[in-house]
Design a protein that fits this description.
Layout (H helix, E strand, L loop, with lengths): L18 H9 L7 H17 L3 H35 L3 H17 L15 H12 L11 H13 L5 H5 L3
Helix pairs in contact: 2-3, 3-4, 3-6, 4-5
Length: about 170
């Protein structure tokens, strides 16, 4: 929980080690600035709607939260895959394995994202599993063998389902 209850976004990314940290990193990229305020406003208005028993507004705010958190997961998946690719190309395998491990986790999480248009996940369980298999199956040694082409293809597939580009997500730090 934030130590500043009147203005919680002032400590964005500092209060816990879970999604708040990644929301802060996405917020810090000019391509995505405002996303943290959107999430905060939706939580705030949604909570007020619950108190007022206005369930239509509550549901609309829940949709916004789901959408924005889904975007954060997708942006960070692409970011880490691209960071891993860059580290591989620079023979920095320590950084590559860190980034690819983070990316793998975010790719896995894509199956839990929700598209508000049809209330389905942006990616099916089998699509996500295909991504994960592709990351590990470029050769017999798993992440040691993943190719930049594989990471680019997966990154492009992820970004194409959202309103951002691979280049935009790659710079989100």
């Amino acid at each position: 929980a934030t130590s500043n209850v009147t203005s919680p976004l002032t400590t964005l990314g500092q209060d816990d080690g879970f999604l708040n940290k990644y929301l802060a990193r996405v917020e810090g990229d000019s391509d995505f600035s405002g996303i943290a305020q959107d999430v905060f406003d939706a939580f705030k208005l949604g909570r007020a709607a619950i108190v007022a028993k206005n369930y239509e507004v509550r549901d609309a705010q829940a949709d916004i939260i789901r959408q924005k958190i889904s975007e954060v997961i997708a942006i960070r998946a692409v970011y880490y895959l691209q960071s891993g690719k860059n580290a591989i190309e620079n023979n920095d395998f320590g950084a590559a394995f860190h980034d690819l491990s983070e990316g793998y986790g975010f790719v896995y999480s894509l199956r839990f994202t929700r598209n508000n248009q049809d209330d389905l996940s942006y990616f099916s369980q089998s699509e996500v599993q295909d991504f994960l298999n592709n990351i590990l199956n470029d050769g017999p040694n798993g992440l040691w063998d993943v190719t930049p082409a594989t990471l680019d293809a997966i990154s492009t597939s992820i970004a194409s389902k959202f309103s951002f580009t691979v280049a935009e997500a790659s710079s989100a730090d």
